[in-house]
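Teaching note: in complex prediction, the entire set of molecules is handled at once rather than each chain in isolation. The prompt given to students was simply: 'Predict the structure of this complex.' The entities are:
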Amino acid sequence: MRHIISVLMENEPGALSRVVGLFSQRNYNIESLTVAPTEDATLSRLTVTTIGNDRVVEQITKQLNKLIDVVKVVDLSEGDHIEREVMMIKLKASGQMRAEIKRTCDIFRGQIIDVTPTTYTVQLVGASDKLDAFISALGSASIMEVVRSGVCGIARGEKVLSL
Amino acid sequence: MVVRALKDEGVQYIYGYPGGSLLHVYDALFQQEDVQHILVRHEQAATHMADAYARATGKAGVALVTSGPGATNAVTGIATAFMDSIPMVVITGQVMSHLIGEDAFQETDMLGISRPVVKHNFSVQRPEDIPAIVRKAFHIAESGRPGPVVIDLPKDMTTPTERYPYEYPKQVKMRSYTPITRGHTGQIKKATDLLLNAKRPVIYSGGGVIMGDASEQLTELARLLNFPVTNTLMGLGGYPGTDRQFIGMLGMHGSYEANMAMHHADLILAVGARFDDRVTNATDKFCPTAKIVHIDIDPASISKTVQADIPIVGPAKVVLDEMAQLVKNSKKQPDADALKAWWQQIDEWRQRHGGRYRTDDSELMKPQQVIEMLSLVTNGDAFVTSDVGQHQMFAAQYYKFNKPNRWINSGGLGTMGFGLPAAMGVKMNFPDADVACVTGEGSIQMNIQELSTCKQYDLPVKILCLNNQSLGMVRQWQDMNYESRHSQSYMQSLPDFVKLVESYGHVGMKVDKYSDLEGAMREAFALKDRLVFMDIAVDPFEHVYPMQVPRGSMRDMWLTKTERT
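The expected output is the structure of the full assembly:
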């Protein structure tokens, strides 16, 4: 099963390499990874999506907790949560395709953020499967380049991950 | 600043080897007398000495090695300590800050290299941080589940002409690191109820009891309950080895009775042990009828390989003490009838195998006899260090450890070359104690250069080299699994060890016959102020038994070359 694990950790050099190293060292997989400082500049928030059974994910959270730089760990998938990913996608867009892409883009509530006579660059925000759906709706022929941010997530309601 | 911080930490000995990036530090060491530096002949030995000090005392040992090759040579020792959860602080020199990343002379990314084998590592970025980093390093190394900590120290952080304010912090507070200090009372109560209802219980204890200083509490609880106790390789000495309730080591080369008892148990109380693959054999067949209570300071050790029914996260000492109090105050008593029947069964198993080995008429010694003799000559009271292989297993099986912290071996990583420097680290800190290094002619040659260090610092350890002219454990596996094709497991062109140690200024003895063994060994231990190397010829065809059958359950064992359960 896919899990979204959120980690609050010290914003220090080497901290990220410890997290990433842990995953390869213990043979866990990383589907996506995002990391950035929080409103408190001494802390970073890292979100990793991984696939594994409950036992593996339990080990991952325990091992992450053991890292000295890690302050808190939560498996967001255990409760109600919101996940979002940003994608920018550069498409060949000329002739009839321009209108077609624009329509698909509207359906998915994407925004065209860069335009040339032959290309569109579309920005799309949503859960990962929505981004996947957009890509398959386009058909691969027109895609020139795709960049995705990886997942970040937050719990619904009052629950927070903080100090 | 570095030396002063070590002094403030109360460090007496550091083990190391100088080099370019550490010259400022070595100059500071030269100009004081509080922190004594021990010069080894290879950095790996420095880490093992520091490690063994920690194993014998529970306090973090300190090693100091230079950048580049000095640091990489130390990695094996750091990994050895990591696998066995041993507190250690290793200071590695580093090239000047402005050269880092430029492939400078003797530069290596020690933070990167050491990361998977340390509890934590630090890079010093500002000289004024040194005292706080040193304090944190010791705090992290020694608290919670202990482990090695590396401090990477660029040369320009130690420039003697620059002065900085120095204040050694009394306490450490880290928001991201708060080791647990006691167990969950509700869980402990639930576990105690299970203990009192058990009919076929086994206490399975590991290195956590030794490093957690909990052997007294374990012994008290086991005696209150009249439960059998088995120790892991790392846990030997956690419960007195000559006690009736002790049923031996468990696992791959565990005793017949310990493995049988585990397999048939209805309750296993695991304390400071991690259900390692050399203990459990195939986990899907492991102890099919047992409920498992698991006490460990590291939550990640619980339910990692074997699911625990009652997990208790906390220090073994505190949790066991609380359990003993609950048992004492409980109206319910352990089920005496069930335990009587259980002990009868265990005693039957003991009769069946009970650590037997065959001696034949030839004068060729069995390695087991040598260990039994060592146990006899030292009254089971010596510090015994070992290398890795058959001799290690024989020492674990046949030396009766009655006290914790006396059995010092590389259990997790299995590092050949550990034994001699470990013995040196112990002897240095316990000059009046008997310290024996049980080794083989293969392992000893991995760090034999340290005989020179022994001479320099006058470390009269006793080295028992069980010489079977082969890498015995490799050979045993080749006999059992590869139709005796002994690929590269012989030891040719061995030196004359007696002459070799004599050239270092030590005493060498060669023992070929069992009838000479006792006299020679007593003579060796009587030479209190000399290092004695005993080159003891043992049967090269001997195997370690019992040996669990691969991918079987706990009870599936070879008992001799031809007999299995």
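Point out the following to students. The first helix of chain B runs from residue 2 to 8. Chain B has a mean pLDDT of 96.
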